[in-house]
Amino acid sequence: MMILCVAEIRHGKLVSSIFELLTAAKAMGQPVAAAVVGGAAASAAADTLKGRGFEKVYVASHASLDGQSDEAYAHALKAIVAQAKPETVLLPASAQWRAVAPRLAVLLGTGLASDVIEATAGADKKVQVVRAAFGGNVLSKIAVKGSPAIVTVRPMSYTRTDASGSGAVENVAIAPAGWKVKTRVTGFAPEAATEVDLAAAEKVVSGGRGLGNPQGFELIRKLAQTLGAAVGASRATVDAGWIPYRHQVGLTGRTVRPRLYVACGISGQIQHLAGMSASDVIVAINTDKDCPMMKLANFAVHGDLNEIIPAIVAEVHKLRGEAPAMAGAKKAYCRASFSRNSAASAAAMPARASAVRMWRASCSARSRATPPTGRSTRSTSSST
Ligand SMILES: Cc1cc2nc3c(=O)[nH]c(=O)nc-3n(C[C@H](O)[C@H](O)[C@H](O)COP(=O)(O)OP(=O)(O)OC[C@H]3O[C@@H](n4cnc5c(N)ncnc54)[C@H](O)[C@@H]3O)c2cc1C
pLDDT 10s digit of each residue in the chain, 384 long? Predict the structure, then answer.
């Protein structure tokens, strides 16, 4: 039995989601191969993958696959499946492969489970998956009928495996002339984005209802820009129309797994935590010191975000020798109360050490935000 992980190539570059699929596949304890489909960039991507923990890398490369047609990709992948004969095919649940997966399932006459957050091998070695259903209110465990099982895996549901090895590349012959392809991609117009991509971000600064109004996201953007972070949001702010849905973190938004997550004015309801609790280091800024996010956080800053965020931004600029400080920074220095949730930090310290260093280096939060007036800091144990 073998698991085939499908690589995504976006704008000529291999996307790291393939290494998340590798983690999922390895956890199932079966041999793992990779599949690469595409135009000119496919062969180079396959060469990269052959030394990265896959026993074999199957590649279907043809100039006609440069246009990213879902139908053509499904046909090419069908040819790879015929040659590799996997028991399970794992694909990233990205915009591209979410569209290809059902077409592949129809071509193969087999079952599909989409957007899964966990995949395991059952007693019969067949894949069983967990996916969120009914808007995230239910987690369902699913067995897929048919072989191979087609499974799309939600981005960031797994860490990335950084393995080495020497798998062979095997070319798969394809005959695009015989495929029924009714669509052709004629161009790509990227959204004008000046912000860091949330899905792949190593640092995320998120805002919640505590921002008070849509303008509050200016503060979030300022802090995100300063730290080189992506902007995230709670569903409450998305539902209120303060920020587009693509920024939503949580069960019904994106799952993120950054080294640093800064939650500003977010209470930490379970649906939000579902999308970010795997972050290496969590910093919470909140006026309610007892809310779930403050308890989960490794570093809890108790106070008004309108004062604390400018203080952090000002401090980072100061450390870098840059001007100017934001208005209100001095007040924040006096009012914020900072605590480190030591139980959570200590338990995960080896994995989190670099992110902790990064956070300290970037804003010196611990020493600067501790109240200078003798106000006591809170030390809360928490679980992550
Ligand atoms: C099926 C379902 C799916 C859902 N999916 C998601 C999801 O994907 N993502 C998601 O986020 N939610 C989701 N939700 C909603 C979730 O249950 C919460 O309602 C939502 O996360 C709350 O957002 P919030 O923390 O911004 O707002 P609130 O819960 O209102 O919290 C606001 C916080 O701001 C703090 N605050 C107020 N003023 C300040 C200030 N000046 N400075 C600092 N702090 C301040 C308050 O103390 C409070 O903790 C879902 C709900 C359901 C039922």
Answer: 799 999 999 888 999 999 999 999 999 999 999 999 999 899 999 999 998 999 999 999 998 888 778 999 999 999 999 999 999 999 999 989 999 999 999 999 999 999 999 999 988 888 999 988 766 667 899 999 999 999 999 988 898 988 887 889 999 999 999 898 888 888 877 766 667 778 788 999 999 999 999 999 999 999 999 999 999 999 999 999 999 999 999 988 988 999 999 999 999 999 999 899 989 999 999 999 999 999 999 999 999 999 999 999 999 998 888 765 555 554 444 456 777 775 554 343 333 333 333 333 333 333 333 332 222 223 333 332
Atom of ligand 1 nearest to the CA of 136: 1
Cα(50)–Cα(164) distance, integer angstroms: 9
Q: Which residue has the tokens 């809170």?
A: 378
- Residues β-bridged to residue 99: none
CATH superfamily of 203-369: TPP-binding domain (3.40.50.1220)
* CA distance between the termini of the chain: 35
What are the residue ranges spanned by the domains of the chain?
3-178, 203-369
Spatial CB neighbours of 376, under 8 Å, sequence gap ≥ 6 = 337
For ligand 1, atom 30, name the residue with the nearest CA: 209
Centroid of ligand 1 to alpha carbon of 18 (angstroms): 32
Instruction: Please list, residue by residue across 311-320, b when 16 or more beta carbons sit within 10 angstroms of its beta carbon and e when fewer do.
Output: bbbbbbbbee
Q: Which atom of ligand 1 is nearest to the CA of 208?
A: 26
**Cα–ligand 1 centroid distance for 218 (angstroms):** 18
CATH class in words for 3-178: alpha beta
Cβ–ligand 1 contact at 252 (below 6 Å): yes
Q: Decide whether any atom of ligand 1 lies within 6 Å of the 301 Cβ.
A: no
Query: Can you point out the beta strands (E) in 182-314?
Result: 203-207, 230-233, 260-264, 281-286, 299-302
Structure tokens at 117: 């957050």
- Mapping DSSP onto H, E and C, the string for 29-43 reads CCCEEEEEEECCHHH
Nearest CA to ligand 1 atom 38: 210
